[in-house]
Fold this protein.
Amino acid sequence: MSKEEHSPPFEHALHNFKAYGKLKEIGEFNDWVVTTSFYSALKFMEDKLFPGDYIHPKKGIQDTFKSFDLYFRACSSLTPTNKHRVLANLVDEHISDRSVVNSYNDLKSACHTARYINYKVGEDRVTMCSEAIEIIKNFCCGV
Amino acid sequence: MVETKTQNKHKTLLDFDYIGDSFGEDDMIDAYLKGKVDGEKGYLETLKKEIFKGLQSSALSSSLFKEKLKGIGVDVMDMYLRIIDFKAFECLAIIKDEDFYTKDKRWTSYDISKMVNSGIDDINLNFSLMPFSDDVKHETITSDGYYFKYNNV
């Protein structure tokens, strides 16, 4: 892949980030602002972490994984598990910038608990998510 | 007695003759099946004990987490627990919204949750945080598998 080309997860991250921006401008869909900001962050993290060398969950030795999907496939063969949990653990263990890790936690919490307040997402939550996605985007885009 | 296909007690093995009829293949199959049932029952009991032990560990650690958050000025309004698998559990902590939206307090709470989890040997306990709201739907929380609610708030 040349410097000008980006990975599919990175392109997907930018696409989700664009959706987040448009929805934020509209101002009526705070729940979707939170969702798109989280899924933008998720794809940014996938791009940052893969391809990468990680301990193979089954073999117990370091192995190269070309994509998150391939890594998850290796994890899920052991016990039933959840993609979000697996990625969050990778972010926590392998992203050195704690503000990025904490921002990812902010977005994940905000998105996954929105259903517990019937998606009535207030401005505080949107502000938190906006700050978080900017931190992650800047980190991943090398700003 | 289990009906088996091995009705012929006079079939031969290489170098071995059948010399008795007090314990045959049918007895062996019966013993195996009974042993299997007993073994499964025993395994189920072990699994139940493991899950209960994990839940106890999670409950204790969640209370510790609440106390540690109190130490940094974060008020926990409510907590729920759910089972992910035999060795993995999750605690949802609902905290005062002013505390949740104070970035330093929130990020320190994440650090504390990681520290509490690392102190537990036998299970993995993940913590999720959310701000308190009048719109919290407890039945939705329960429908996501959070069947245990903190009762010492």
